[in-house]
Design brief:
The complex is a heterodimer of chains A (181) and B (269).
Chain A (H helix, E strand, L loop, with lengths): L15 H134 L5 H26 L1
Chain B lengths: L2 H8 L30 H20 L9 H46 L15 H22 L1 H9 L9 H46 L4 H44 L4
Helix pairs in contact in B: 2-3, 3-7, 4-5, 4-6, 4-7, 6-7
Classes of the chains: A mainly alpha (181), B mainly alpha (269).
């Protein structure tokens, strides 16, 4: 077994070369890790904390925004409902007015038709009266002829003739009126 | 490659002794020069440990991201473990972050060096030579004393370290030398010895069961020969046991160093 110049085994008496190697190796490792790795890890940890806290902040902001939007929508909805109610009321008023108008015009039409009917009836009546007058005239002439023809027959007979004529006339006019209708 | 491997192949030289921990120089011409012991399996595994750690961390942390990849996560959790559960726990947030790189590097260095104790073909840790644990112990000693002196000044640091708070005056003559011995002189020694002894014993136990198996196999008696299987099974079992020791000792070394630094940083009582 070859052992170092220090003589002793490397077990309890440290071999100085090994101490140097251990120190250099550890120093190198420490240098590289502490310079290039661990500071970047710390930065990453910080970035991570930032990201999480930033995320919470963003979430809070988004929540607030959402609340605002909701509030706005609620307001809009309420105003829309008001508007709808107004429109409905207006429509109802319009409908009532239209109904009223229709009723009025219908009533006017009815009145007009009734008036036309009345006028018609009146015209028929006038015509009837006119025709009747002519008839009455003719009849009067007939009657007069008859009366004159019976002049001699006395006062009493004349009166009788007139009565007879009037009775005949009323019968005629009644039958004619029913015929004209 | 190693002497123990040769011993193992020869099937002789039982029980294993101190010789099993000696390593032949790779270049025999250097044995009588100052470069003796510089190129051995042990020093090679030290450099390889450093290389593995450096390459892994640089590679894993080439492009750090907020949401880590698997290897980035692995690298971060190695650092985060010592940083959070040792350094910051003991030293508080500010000093903890400051000392985390040192403590983590020490933990990883010792851990990987210990790990050679169970790597097939090597199966010996550099830490089973006192030189390497001693180096780590000396560095720890330098660090915690330096930190204490820097914070409190030399005299006040000695006072804080050697006089426990609230101790009665008449006991001080006894207490001060004891505390000085314990806190200033023996701490690096106990650190180094604890680690060294564990790794040394671990290697020795593996050797005992492995070589013992060969010795049993070489016996004339068939029954005794069959017992060698049991011996080798125990080698495997002890290897798993060794794994626990490897991690535990690296952790203990780091934790104690952290506690010593904590002791140096305490405010004056």
């Amino acid at each position: 077994m070859i052992q170092a110049a220090e003589g002793g085994s490397g077990i309890l008496f440290p071999i100085w070369q090994e101490i140097v190697i251990g120190a250099v190796a550890f120093g190198l490792l420490c240098f590289v890790l502490a310079k290039f790795v661990f500071p970047r890890m710390e930065k990453t940890f910080e970035a991570r904390v930032d990201a999480i806290e930033g995320g919470i902040e963003r979430a809070e902001r988004a929540q607030e925004e959402a609340n605002q939007t909701l509030e706005e929508y609620r307001r809009k909805l309420a105003s829309a409902q008001d508007e709808a109610a107004a429109i409905r009321d207006e429509a109802r008023a319009d409908a009532v007015a239209a109904k009223e108008e229709i009723l009025v015009s219908a009533r006017e039409e009815a009145n007009r038709i009734i008036a036309a009917g009345h006028a018609n009836v009146e015209a028929s009546r006038q015509q009837l009266i006119r025709e009747l007058r002519g008839e009455v005239g003719n009849l009067a002439v007939d009657l007069a002829g008859k009366i004159i023809g019976q002049r001699l027959a006395g006062e009493a007979a004349t009166e009788q003739t007139v009565d007879q004529f009037l009775a005949q006339l009323s019968d005629d006019s009644a039958s004619e009126a029913s015929g004209a209708r | 490659m190693t002497d123990s491997a040769q011993v193992l192949a020869a099937g002789s030289h039982f029980p294993p002794g101190i010789d099993s921990f000696n390593f032949r120089d790779w270049f025999t011409g250097l044995s009588d020069t100052a470069l003796a012991n510089v190129f051995t399996t042990l020093t090679f595994s030290v450099w390889l440990s450093v290389a593995i750690l450096i390459v892994f961390f640089l590679w894993a942390y080439r492009k750090p991201q907020i949401v880590p990849t698997k290897r980035q996560w692995l690298a971060e959790s190695a650092y985060g473990f010592i940083r959070n559960s040792v350094s910051i726990d003991l030293l508080g947030k500010q000093a903890g972050v400051r000392f985390a790189p040192y403590l983590t590097t020490m933990f990883l260095f010792i851990l990987v060096m210990n790990f050679w104790a169970v790597v097939p073909g090597v199966q010996i840790s550099p830490n089973s030579h006192i030189a390497f644990p001693a180096t780590m112990g000396i560095i720890a000693w330098l660090v915690y004393n330096w930190v204490g002196i820097k914070k409190h000044g030399f005299v006040r640091y000695l006072k804080i370290t050697c006089i426990p708070p609230g101790s009665p005056v008449f006991i001080l003559p006894l207490l001060i030398p004891l505390e000085f011995l314990q806190n200033i002189l023996l701490r690096p020694v106990t650190l180094a010895l604890r680690l060294f002894a564990n790794m040394f014993a671990g290697h020795l136990i593996l050797l005992v069961f492995t070589l013992g198996g060969f010795v049993l196999l070489n016996s004339e008696n068939l029954f005794i020969q069959s017992v060698s299987v049991l011996s080798w099974a125990l080698t495997i079992a002890m290897t798993f046991f060794e794994l626990i020791v490897i991690v535990l000792q690296a952790y203990v070394f780091t934790l104690l160093t952290g506690m010593y630094i904590q002791g140096s940083l305490v405010d004056e009582h």
